[in-house]
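wait is this the right file?? whatever heres the structure
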């Protein structure tokens, strides 16, 4: 089975080891954190904001050195609500309390300028590389797969056909080098799963998503947001 096909589906019971051309990937739980705009306005003093930004980035560096942080990066949310993502390794960050503790030295969080949304995410840890290019950044595309308020009326045959289409499309995106990371979010009322896609061609991303009957059939919805990560975070063909 092609890379991600066993794990990227947002369907119950499809979390399993990933394999591509005989290669096994280390599936496991991660913490996917979305940084959102907090209730407290940033100060008008630009020097104070820069000081907080420096401490904010230094905290990311410290988390990485401790083996807590796998990757992080800013987003450009058109609604200006979602500010960035942080992905923690579930082996070293055991629970939500530990996630919040990791932000104790982040002035944006502590002063209420940003808040955190924490989600259980299952994907292949091996697909997130620590061999990034220092000081570099590149644009990718985050696709948040969202649960609709109401599920469409359907027969079992229709549902199963949509699920197969979903899995086939994940395989195709992986084979073409489009899909970088994918996996289900569990225990969330809002989100069902996540795709992180190489590049920033949102028109092409939408074309791929429209090939997924699970999306076009209304079983899940999606939100596309530009996301920046260090170069090398998701090596193609890994």
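ok assuming it is, sequence goes like this
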């Amino acid at each position: 089975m092609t890379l991600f096909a066993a794990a990227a589906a947002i369907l119950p019971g499809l979390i399993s080891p990933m394999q591509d051309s005989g290669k096994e990937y280390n599936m496991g739980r991660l913490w996917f954190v979305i940084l959102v705009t907090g209730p407290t306005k940033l100060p008008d003093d630009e020097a104070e904001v820069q000081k907080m930004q420096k401490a904010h980035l230094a905290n990311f560096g410290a988390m990485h050195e401790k083996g807590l942080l796998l990757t992080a990066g800013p987003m450009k949310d058109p609604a200006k609500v979602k500010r960035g993502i942080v992905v923690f390794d579930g082996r070293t960050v055991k629970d939500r309390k530990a996630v919040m503790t990791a932000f104790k030295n982040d002035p944006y969080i502590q002063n209420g300028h940003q808040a955190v949304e924490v989600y259980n995410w299952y994907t292949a840890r091996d697909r997130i590389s620590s061999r990034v290019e220092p000081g570099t950044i590149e644009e990718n595309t985050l696709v948040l797969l969202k649960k609709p308020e109401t599920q469409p009326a359907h027969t079992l045959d229709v549902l199963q056909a949509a699920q197969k289409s979903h899995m086939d499309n994940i395989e195709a995106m992986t084979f073409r080098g489009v899909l970088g990371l994918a996996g289900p979010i569990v225990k969330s009322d809002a989100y069902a799963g996540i795709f992180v896609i190489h590049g920033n061609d949102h028109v092409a991303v939408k074309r791929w998503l429209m090939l997924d009957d699970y999306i076009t059939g209304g079983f899940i919805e999606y939100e596309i947001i530009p996301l920046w990560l260090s170069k090398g975070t998701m090596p193609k063909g890994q």
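The first strand starts at residue 18 and ends at 20. so i think its the right one actually
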